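Hi V.,

Quick status before I head out on leave. The structure for the redesign project is tokenized and pasted below; the design run finished overnight.
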């Protein structure tokens, strides 16, 4: 065995003589077909943890789905999905528990395919160590590097590199050392506490649970012996106390407690605590469980805390010790692993889950993305599926956190697509952008209500959306004229006009379109605050950005007006000759041709100019505004 310690880290001998206690959570990862599932199956088989009926079923399945000829295919023990067995790959994360006299283990078998990187990250997020498999024939591959980098990001500090299928290269020590050199050259800049390398043959059991006689050049312990003695310091109890509130427990008027699971640290009755977001302090009066009160609670304990004072606490708040508070900011930097097919677009609103809190959030900028082969920082505007980058993130309200390197429980978050509810990305917070906490809203002597009263009508955003050539701007112009006649205070923001000034630096990529609408939405919000009816005429092709603008103002202040003109009619009109140029390939990212338009799902008003004049359509909109009491 060779154990390496990058930089200034502690080296563990990995010997079999040291004591080992407790539970070790580890994952197997690496490129596809490197033998992850086979290794776990062999571990279970050699430790005699397979029951007789399981073994008979495995032999039967090996004949049907196996890839090892007449031998038992141990991968089938953990490849439980039918699709996995048919393809001979791992898709989902499979968890297995096993135990030896020296230690208990929970192992996560994670997929090697790039498209299932999100599943690998799920397994890594709960692991203390990683076994990275490398096919001795293929050496270090892109997915090997990607999985290693993700392990580093997710706080795994102990790596065991298992150079597998060593039997297929004639148990060559030279080949083993060559692969080890390649891997260490890549991994030396990653923040691992130890990297241990072992040559193995998972199929035949060489160096899995016992030392192999077929590699006289290797004198270290087996893979299992190393895992049994690996010293992993979780030490969650030694970290500052953090208690994300999952539920406000109010069964009757005489009891009000805050339920959740202690994320880290220890809390005792009488300890002084603080609600991180509000800064309100109190004292722990009781630590309640179903089995009776406790004198203290530790990391992993599910409890209900009662406080001595009436303090406002809600689901998602974090309770901490008053003398060791987390940071509370509404902007921070984070490494983000993108998990969605649709690219990450800066400025787009996502739903963030951090601890037990759900809150709207935006990636305001992508500082760089990471080349997983070289770890080089690359300039980019978006992240694609399975790409990783350092981002600035802004949340709709301040959140409490610790840097991920200090506390994995309170430094991690996920981003959720607000339309599909699918996980879009996973993030690890690096540091807060402290300038956000130094900016406070200035109190104004003249408020929105005063401006509305002076103007004599309700403010609103009239958002005209539709394809180029649908007639949006023409209709909006007429509507504004009619509103002006009725004495309404108005202003019109037109898609072409704002690109001469406010948005002159933006192009027409998806990322630029998102930023275009984000800026316009913020300006429109200011007009509403001024008590004005602001008319916005923009293609605005994405539902997410239209929804973002809607959420900037009150529920009765946003009116989505869908100008539903068929694309054939828009192309026939083609007032600027844009469709013709787009079809010739002279204009890229043109909505309706090579860039999508997402039709509004529930617009307040739908109009069509195919069978009516712009004046007739405008009159319909004015009547609708009267019905909604925007104007008298």
């Amino acid at each position: 065995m060779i154990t390496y310690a990058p930089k200034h880290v502690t080296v563990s001998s990995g010997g079999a003589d040291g004591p080992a206690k407790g539970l070790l959570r580890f994952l197997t990862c690496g490129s596809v077909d490197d033998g992850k599932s086979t290794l776990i199956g062999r571990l279970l088989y050699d430790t005699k943890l397979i029951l007789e009926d399981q073994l008979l079923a495995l032999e039967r399945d090996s004949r049907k789905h196996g890839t090892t000829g007449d031998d038992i295919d141990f991968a089938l023990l953990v490849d439980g999905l039918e699709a996995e067995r048919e393809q001979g790959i791992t898709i989902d994360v499979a968890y297995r528990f096993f135990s030896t006299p020296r230690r208990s283990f929970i192992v996560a078998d994670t997929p090697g395919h790039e498209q299932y990187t999100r599943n690998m990250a799920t397994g890594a997020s709960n692991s203390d160590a990683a076994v990275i498999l490398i096919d001795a024939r293929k050496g270090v591959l892109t997915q090997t590097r990607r999985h290693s980098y993700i392990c580093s990001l997710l706080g795994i500090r102990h790596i065991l590199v298992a150079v597998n299928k060593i039997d297929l290269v004639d148990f060559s020590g030279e080949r083993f050392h060559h692969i080890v050199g390649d891997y260490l050259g890549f991994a030396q800049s990653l923040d691992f506490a130890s990297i241990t390398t072992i040559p193995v043959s998972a199929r035949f059991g060489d160096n899995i649970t016992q030392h192999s006689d077929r590699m006289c050049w290797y004198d270290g312990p087996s893979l299992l012996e190393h895992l049994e003695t690996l010293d992993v310091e979780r030490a969650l109890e030694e970290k500052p106390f953090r208690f994300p509130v999952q539920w406000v427990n109010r069964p009757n008027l005489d009891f009000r407690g805050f339920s959740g699971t202690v994320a880290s640290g220890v809390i005792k009755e009488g300890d002084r605590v603080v609600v991180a977001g509000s800064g309100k302090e109190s004292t722990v009066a009781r630590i309640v469980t179903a089995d009776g009160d406790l004198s203290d609670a530790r990391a992993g304990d599910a409890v209900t805390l009662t406080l001595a004072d009436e303090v406002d606490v809600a689901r998602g708040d974090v309770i901490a010790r008053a003398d060791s508070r987390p940071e509370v900011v509404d902007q921070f930097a984070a490494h983000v692993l993108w998990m969605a097919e649709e690219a990450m677009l800066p400025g787009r609103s996502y739903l963030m889950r951090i601890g037990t809190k759900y809150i709207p959030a935006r990636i305001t900028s992508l500082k760089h993305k990471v080349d997983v082969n070289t770890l080089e920082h690359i300039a980019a505007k978006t992240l694609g599926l399975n790409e990783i980058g350092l981002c600035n993130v802004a949340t709709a309200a301040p959140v409490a956190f610790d840097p991920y390197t200090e506390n994995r429980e309170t430094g991690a978050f996920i981003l959720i697509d607000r339309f599909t509810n699918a996980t879009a990305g996973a993030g690890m917070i690096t540091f807060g952008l402290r300038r956000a906490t130094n900016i406070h809203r200035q109190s104004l002597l003249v408020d929105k209500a005063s401006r509305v009263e002076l103007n004599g009508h309700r403010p609103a955003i009239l958002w005209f959306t539709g394809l180029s050539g649908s007639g949006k701007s023409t209709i909006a112009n007429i509507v504004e004229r009619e509103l002006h006649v009725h004495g309404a205070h108005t202003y019109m923001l037109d898609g072409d006009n704002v690109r001469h000034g406010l948005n002159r630096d933006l192009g027409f990529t998806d990322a630029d379109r998102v930023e275009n609408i984000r800026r316009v939405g913020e300006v429109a919000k200011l007009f509403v605050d001024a008590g004005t009816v602001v008319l916005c005429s923009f293609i605005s092709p994405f539902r997410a950005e239209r929804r973002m603008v809607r959420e900037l103002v009150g529920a009765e202040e946003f009116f989505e007006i869908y100008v539903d003109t068929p694309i054939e009619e828009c192309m026939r009109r083609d007032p600027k000759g844009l469709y013709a140029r787009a079809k010739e390939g002279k204009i890229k990212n043109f909505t309706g041709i090579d860039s999508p338009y997402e039709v509004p799902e529930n617009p307040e008003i739908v109009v069509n100019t195919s069978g009516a004049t712009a004046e007739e359509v405008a009159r319909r909109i004015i009547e609708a505004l009267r019905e909604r009491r925007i104007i008298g």
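Above is the designed sequence. Residues 204 and 348 are 51 Å apart (CA to CA).

G. will cover questions while I'm gone.

Best,
W.
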